[in-house]
Amino acid sequence: MDRMLYVAMSGAKRVMDEQAVSAANMANVSTPGFRAQINAARAVPVVGEEATTRAFAVATTPGADFSHGPLTQTGRNLDVAVHGDGWLVVQTPDGGEAYTRVGNLQVGADGQLLTMGSRPVVGEGGALVVPPGSTVQIAANGAITARGAGDPLVGVAEVGRLKLVNPPTTDMVRGEDGLFRMREGLPPAEADAAVTVSSGVIEGSNVKPVDAMVAMISQARSFEMQMKSIQTADNNAQSANKLLAYS
């Protein structure tokens, strides 16, 4: 059988995978701090006794677009956006660390600082807990102060400090939960004093809706072309069978 059939099949499969990535990016256009996923493929020639006229589509290592998203002023004390490069640290269910740019935080019923996804935010000294009912302020260096009702405006105690990190993006991988982690075998990232945040600001998704839509349209056309190639290979096989039957 002509290898053209398998070549077209591999191309169609890769296009379907790319469409899934584009659809996921489109679904997260309004997700704060989201980083667009990148999924690429490369052509690998089919090696055999014949001339190299066929090439398979093979997936390459998926990555992420680490460009910054737009900033929106919210005026909410618990909304923070990281300046430039850097990450907030959250605790994973297994007790490890993960990294995110999602800065719309909240205070849980027990006073623990959480993301909107209910993931505990990690401080330089461990878990961050503020007195329930207090007014929380987050400074540029990540220092968190909490002032209770009736407390003076001066001399407010610091209850913790956000752990802000900035590991090389090449050392990070995205998990199935959308959070980034250090690659297997690497230690957790150390706090970086050079990373700062702004309070009352939230960073949006870096997905560009128009680009994502154009990519989906292009992928749909590419899938149609692969299907046409499969149909052509099938027609060629049927014609060959007829010629053999007549001989």
Automatic annotation (TrEMBL):
SUPFAM superfamilies: Flagellar hook protein flgE (SSF117143). Residues 199-243 form the Flagellar basal-body/hook protein C-terminal domain. Pfam families: Flg_bb_rod, Flg_bbr_C, LlgE_F_G_D1. It comes from the Bacteria. Keywords: Bacterial flagellum, Cell projection, Cilium, Flagellum. This is Flagellar basal-body rod protein FlgF. Belongs to the flagella basal body rod proteins family. It is found in: Bacterial flagellum basal body. Residues 5-35 form the Flagellar basal body rod protein N-terminal domain.
